[in-house]
Amino acid sequence: MSFYDVLHRRRDTRGEFTGAPIPPDVLRRVLSAAHAAPSVGLSQPWDFIVVRDEHTRRAFRDHVQAERDVFASGLDGERAETFARIKVEGILEATLGVVVTYDPDRGSPAVLGRHAIADAGLYSVCLAIENLWLAATAEGLGVGWVSFYREDALRRLLDIPSTVRPVAWLCVGPVHSLPGAPDLERHGWRNRLPLEDVLHQERYTRRSAR
Ligand SMILES: Cc1cc2nc3c(=O)[nH]c(=O)nc-3n(C[C@H](O)[C@H](O)[C@H](O)COP(=O)(O)O)c2cc1C
C-alpha cells in the first residue's frame, strides 16, 4: 500500500474485529511507529500500556457503557435515535487494548518549545497515536479510539499515577474489513467536511457554524 492508500484506508474500528492474535513482531512494529513520533523538545511524553486481561477489559467496558448512557441522556429526538444505533467501542471484541498516556513531567522542567503552549505535550501524544493508527492500518489491523471514560476511573484501573493523563484507550486487532466510510457518516450523525470549508488563505475567514 502506498502512504496515501494507508492514510485514506485508516478507519476508526468498532464492530469489525475478529479477535485473532496479533503476531508479536507486528505489534512491535506498530508500537515502534508510535514511539517514532515527533514530540515537543523531544520529550517523548507518552507511555503505552498493552491490556490483554479479560477482567480488566470487562471492567473498562462497563465503565464506558455507563459513560455512554451519560452522553445519551443529554440527547433528544433524532439525535437520541441516531446515537442509539452507533457502536462506540470494541473493547472486548478487539485482540487487545493499548492505553496511551501523557506524562507532563517527562523531560521537565525545561521542555524546549513548551514554555508558551502547555498543550504541546498533549499534541505530541496525539501524533504518537496517529503514527500507531497508520502503522496498524498498513499492517492490516483495525484501531478504535475510545474516549467515553473518566480519566480517574482509568487511572485507578491501570495504576496510572495521578500526574499522568490517560489520553486514549485504543482497541487494536485484526479485522474482517475496514469500512469505506466513517461509522458516524454511515449512521447519519455527521459528515466529513469538504476541504474547502476548512481552508483559508492569508487570514482566518469567519464562517457559519460547520
Ligand atoms: C480524540 C478522539 C476520540 C474518539 N473517541 C471515540 C469514541 O469514544 N468512540 C468511538 O466510537 N469513536 C471515537 N473516535 C473515532 C471518531 O468517531 C472517528 O475518528 C471519526 O468519526 C472519523 O472516522 P474515521 O476515523 O473512521 O475516519 C475518536 C476519535 C478521536 C480522534
What does it look like?
The chain is an alpha+beta fold. It has one domain: 3-Layer(aba) Sandwich (NADH Oxidase), CATH 3.40.109.10. About 40% of the residues lie in helices and about 15% in strands. The protein is built from 8 helices and 4 strands, in the order ααβααβαβαβαα. About 25% of the residues are buried. The site of flavin mononucleotide (FMN) has 11 residues, from strand 3.
Helical fraction: 25-40%
What Rg, in angstroms, do the CA atoms define?
Answer: 18 Å
> Which CATH architecture?
3-Layer(aba) Sandwich
Largest sheet: 4 strands, antiparallel
Task: Report the β-strand fraction as a percent range.
Answer: 5-15%
SSE pattern, N- to C-terminal:
HHEHHEHEHEHH
Q: What overall geometry do the principal axes of the alpha carbons give?
A: globular
Number of domains: 1
> How many helices in DSSP terms?
8
* Spans of at least 5 consecutive residues with low confidence: none
Q: Roughly what is the average pLDDT, rounded to an integer? A: 97
Find the structural class using helix and strand composition: alpha+beta
Number of E-type strands: 4
CATH class: Alpha Beta
Order of the strands making up the biggest sheet? 1-2-4-3
User: What name goes with the CATH superfamily?
Assistant: NADH Oxidase
Distance between the termini: 33 Å
The ligands found in this model are:
flavin mononucleotide
CATH topology: NADH Oxidase
